[in-house]
């Protein structure tokens, strides 16, 4: 039996197992899900064991890490697979057409939180490897599998784990399936991710909510002030106004600009898919250049004042907001957080008190766009998808990818199976069944192709 026929034969059970995995509400951001997260780690650990991996769950000060190995021969290349089993909070629940942790199939899609990001994709990797193990009795490369539970909350504990277990994690290349293809008919190798820097801002006004009639006009309103300060973060050309924000940003290469121009793109389709009348961004850059290669500054959520039913006439005593800045390679998250704080405190009027909490972040990465590893992944994608991949970058972040290079000296192959419209981080997250199947197939061919690379 070939790995592909094995995948076909085990289709039903594979889907059943994926559903079981998706039913576990492993939301890393919320402490009420601590036990679910631990259960999810346990489930994966047992599943990897049942396939023949030596697997273990490692505790961290946060959520546990699952680490598994399938070692064949020291002379063969060693591939470090990375994925995450934690998911984003599913809220707002009322916008889901079916409950986020009750996976269902509708019109060729699996709907559930984590279906694509990243349980579905990690599971495709595991099942691809299983197909090779079960049909050939072994693997053509050594595999190390690292699955964490804190990716969606900045992978806070993973760098330390990697530093402490450098020898155990030693390998030749990293493989991550946590990105998307270019579109439904065009698979992609992703060679760049943006980094991220996060801050939370608190604006304090009067020592309690006060009557807006009695005091309005005489004192600063923290919500008004916060909005005005946020409004000062961009100029009319869409550039971020924080002094020094662009100082470490490198210009796009000619090769990249040319590469992106070759990708199919229609502004009208892009707008339509998002229900927008127009797009907006930094002057002088195309849509993909803006979303993949330029840094940004965006409010993720803003809070303050009365949100309940009906009216309440107050000047709220405080306002707050969460901001993330997407970074590009060479920008340092700490430096950017410091610059943000300095600027924000400088523009704050004396009539309010402003506090900026800096949560740090992760660096952006670009990985080589040539070389034998990349060629091997291109061949695997072609076998799985029936089409050669194009090159693209992504606007999202996978914090640990930069650390793999810095701590372990390893490059990463970003082989994503999702689609841009899989609604990751949104209501109705989904994963096309055909993409899950292609992901399993690609993952079954990948070790064979990687084995051809001379160590
Ligand atoms: N899978 C995403 C990264 C991604 C996003 C890839 C969009 C391709 C397209 C990942 O799980 C993610 O969302 N990461 C977070 C990291 C953050 C919380 C530090 C992100 O980018 O917001
Ligand atoms: Zn993810």
Summarize the structure in short:
The chain has 455 residues and is of the alpha+beta class. 35% of the residues lie in helices and 21% in strands.
Q: What does this 3D model show about the protein?
A:
This protein is α+β, with helices and mostly antiparallel strands and 455 residues long. It folds into three domains: 3-193 and 364-450, Zn peptidases (Aminopeptidase, 3-Layer(aba) Sandwich); 195-247 and 295-360, Alpha-Beta Plaits, CATH 3.30.70.360; 250-293, no CATH class. Helix content is 35%, strand content 21%. It has 14 helices and 18 strands. It has helices at 3-9, 11-23, 34-51, 119-136, 158-164, 212-215, 222-231, 254-262, 267-274, 287-293, 333-347, 372-385, 400-408, 433-451, and strands at 54-58, 65-70, 78-84, 104-106, 109-111, 142-148, 173-176, 188-193, 195-204, 210-211, 298-304, 314-315, 318-327, 353-362, 365-366, 390-393, 412-414, 430-432. The strands form five sheets. It has a six-stranded mixed beta sheet, with helices on both faces. Strands 11-13-9-14 form a four-stranded antiparallel beta sheet, with helices on one face. Strands 4-5-18 form a three-stranded antiparallel beta sheet. The two termini are 29 Å apart. The mean pLDDT is 96.
Properties at a glance:
455 residues; alpha+beta; Aminopeptidase; Alpha-Beta Plaits; 3 domains; 6-stranded mixed β-sheet; 4-stranded antiparallel β-sheet; 14 helices; 18 strands; 35% helix; globular; binds ligand BES; binds zinc ion
